[in-house]
Amino acid sequence: MMKFRLYFDKDADERFLNNMSAKGYALKRFFLGFYTFKKSQPGEYTYRIELIQDRDSFNKKELYSLIEDVGGELVQTWGIWAIFRKKGDFELYSDNESKISYYKRIKKIFFCLSMGELCILPSQYSMLERVDIAKYTAPLITVIFLAMILQVYKCGRKIKQLEEDL
């Protein structure tokens, strides 16, 4: 089975994957918003998505090995994200301090990406009259910028909530 979803929100993506698992579908692969699932036992897996901060292959292998040691497995990587699953309950972060640090990393990345998009926007809108493709790229970049800023806001809210729970 294949489903299409575009998420910029790792929590929403995890909820989607775990809901599909509850219905008896295990993630097989992911590509550009297309999720391919195979039939499994309902609720067989719990999915977690991790931001791979360190591009050093040794540290990535160490993380993957740590996940395997607790019974998890790497399903797929996509850019800076890794999708893990495990049979039964599964958490990557057990305390609020590590969760806060994690969401701060995500917030920083989305903030930097959104600022890059913001820098591109004026040039796109200035070309609207002269370049036909700008009629498509300017709104697209605007939507991407807004989606990324929304994630910065959501991460900030999540961080604040976690700090209040300390």
UniProtKB/TrEMBL annotation:
<dbReference type="Pfam" id="PF11193">
    <property type="entry name" value="DUF2812"/>
</dbReference>
<keyword id="KW-0812">Transmembrane</keyword>
<protein>
    <recommendedName>
        <fullName>DUF2812 domain-containing protein</fullName>
    </recommendedName>
</protein>
<dbReference type="InterPro" id="IPR021359">
    <property type="entry name" value="DUF2812"/>
</dbReference>
<feature type="transmembrane region" description="Helical">
    <location>
        <begin position="109"/>
        <end position="127"/>
    </location>
</feature>
<keyword id="KW-0472">Membrane</keyword>
<feature type="transmembrane region" description="Helical">
    <location>
        <begin position="133"/>
        <end position="153"/>
    </location>
</feature>
<keyword id="KW-1133">Transmembrane helix</keyword>
